[in-house]
Amino acid sequence: MSLISVHVPKRMLEELDELVRRGIYPNRSEAIRAAIRELIYKESLKSVRPAQEPTPADDQSEEITVLPGR
């Protein structure tokens, strides 16, 4: 893995540390890697989305019920 240095506002670092303290992430590095993965994923969807926009004729969607805990 490569090492990078990033400057972040104090409040952002405090919030990051809180995620680690609550056990959501094992450490700062893993939390930052997760954020980078999410950013890359979202940006990659932007390049795919225009080709997948539904047309009015395609919009015959059914209502979907989301069950709690799923």
UniProtKB/TrEMBL annotation:
CDD domains: RHH_NikR_HicB-like (cd22231). GO terms for biological process: regulation of DNA-templated transcription. Gene3D superfamilies: Met repressor-like. Residues 47-70 are annotated as: Disordered. It holds the Pfam family RHH_1. Residues 4-43 form the Ribbon-helix-helix protein CopG domain. PANTHER family: BLL4998 PROTEIN (PTHR36215). This is CopG/MetJ family transcriptional regulator.
